[in-house]
From TrEMBL:
This is Polysulfide reductase. The lineage of its organism: Bacteria, Pseudomonadati, Bacteroidota, Flavobacteriia, Flavobacteriales. The chain crosses the membrane at residues 25-43, 64-84, 96-118, 148-166, 178-201, 221-242, 254-274, 300-320, 329-350, 370-390. Its main location: membrane. Belongs to the NrfD family. It is a multi-pass membrane protein. GO terms for cellular component: plasma membrane. Pfam families: NrfD. It comes from Leptobacterium flavescens. Keywords: Cell membrane, Membrane, Transmembrane, Transmembrane helix. InterPro entries: DsrP-like, NrfD-like.
Length: 407
């Protein structure tokens, strides 16, 4: 009963904190609310008319929704790069950012689930994914493993930070015997969610573009580059607009993680390009379509030829110690790296897997305004949730928000 009393007080205080703020804060939240409402309107059209209002077809059945889902799984998994050094290696420099990273993971996972719901056409079909009720097909289906992995990781990233925040809210020290086992589980689970997502694509033998043994490790490398890059950008915003103190050395240490992951990601990209183009076969047609076009079809060329130079430039800037330690250059590098990996791991991975089709048919995919509206709405929802989580966490961690018993 005592826990529920404290938790209830925390919820009330959180509502009070998140409904008050500066003019910039209210403008930001109003903007996100507007984008969410636009997304909801677009989604209502999709529910009414079905997936025919999207650019997806029977030829290209995964598009903008699954592209964002795949990318955000990596963003969610990247929280482990802060959890491991903070709770296991006792690196105090990461302690300032770990709860921010876990809040970002929760928001990313909720966005992942929202994109899956959008891609399925509507929430009415979700019962198919419920164990014991729907057609779960466990353990043979990789999709069911993905459902378990995502929901399990979401549960871990909610319960561990919640326990720590509730203890700090009471002015107490969290018991390591309670949360450290969960931390170890989360470290392995974070790797698992991205490997399972990669296996989901690798297991589709009819799609040779995905049938690549390097896909799983490259998923992890890109995740540990893009995720911490986003965390750095978020920390920079928090430093500028709140009183929460985040030291330069914390951001620079995360920048080193991004640099190493970006280098590994670029090496793996070069390895994949060598495999596709040094001794090409008919299985290389998807890669040719992505990078050079096929039969005059070139819809993805502007995307991939934007992503590759941005990826290379960001990696080069992050590699040199003096450049990386300049925070302005670090922020710029993280921004373009995030955009590059979003393109490369989204459109650059999902859409070419369907082109050409099994019979050689080339049917290009272009997202519609409805898809873009729903996508922006889901991203706004994630930003809205993260803002609430971060604002509450910052108030608790800074000591401004404390449990006062009876009120």
């Amino acid at each position: 009963m005592a826990f529920f009393k404290v938790f209830g007080s925390l919820v009330k205080d959180s509502l009070r904190v998140t409904t008050h703020g500066s003019r910039h804060y209210h403008i930001w939240m109003a903007f996100l609310t507007f984008i969410m409402l636009v997304g909801m309107y677009c989604y209502s059209i999709q529910i009414e008319h079905g997936l025919s209002v999207t650019g997806m077809t029977d030829r290209v059945s995964w598009g903008l929704y699954i592209s964002n889902f795949t990318f955000l799984v990596g963003v969610a998994a990247a929280a482990v790069m802060l959890v491991l050094p903070t709770y296991v290696l006792k690196d105090v420099d990461f302690k300032q950012a770990v709860l921010i990273g876990e809040g970002l993971a929760v928001a990313a996972l909720l966005m992942c689930l929202a994109f899956v719901v959008a891609d399925m056409g509507g929430p009415a079909v979700l019962w198919h994914m419920i164990p014991g009720i729907g057609v779960f097909n466990f353990p043979n289906s990789m999709l069911t493993w993905d459902v378990i992995a995502l929901n399990g990781y979401l549960f871990i990233n909610i319960t561990i930070p919640l326990y720590i925040l509730v203890m700090h809210y009471q002015g107490k020290t969290p018991n390591p015997k309670i949360y450290i086992p969960g931390v170890f589980i989360s470290v392995f689970w974070a790797v698992g969610i991205h490997l399972v997502t990669a296996f989901l694509y690798q297991g589709l033998q009819a799609r040779p573009f995905w049938n690549n043994a390097l896909l799983g490790p490259r998923f992890l490398a890109s995740a540990f580059a893009a995720g911490p890059a986003l965390i750095i950008l978020v920390l920079a915003i928090i430093r500028n607009f709140t009183k929460f103190v985040i030291e330069d050395k914390t951001i620079k240490k995360i920048g080193m993680v991004v640099a190493v992951a970006a280098q590994i990601n670029l090496i793996m990209l070069a390895s994949e390009l060598f495999k596709e183009f040094y001794a090409p076969t008919h299985h290389s047609e998807s890669a040719y379509y992505l990078f050079f076009g096929l039969e005059g079809k070139t819809a993805l060329l502007p995307w991939i030829w934007t992503a590759i130079p941005l990826n290379i430039l960001a990696t080069v800037l992050l590699t040199f110690h003096k450049l990386r330690n300049n925070l302005n250059i670090l922020y710029f590098s993280c921004l373009i790296l995030f955009i590059a990996i979003w393109i490369e791991k989204g459109f650059g991975l999902i859409v070419p897997g369907f082109i050409p089709g099994p019979w050689g048919k080339i049917a290009e995919y272009t997202p519609t305004g409805i898809e873009i509206g729903v996508t922006l709405g889901i991203w706004a929802m994630g930003a809205f949730i993260f803002t609430i989580l971060a604002k509450t966490s910052i108030k608790i961690e800074s000591g401004e928000l404390r449990f006062r018993g009876k009120k």
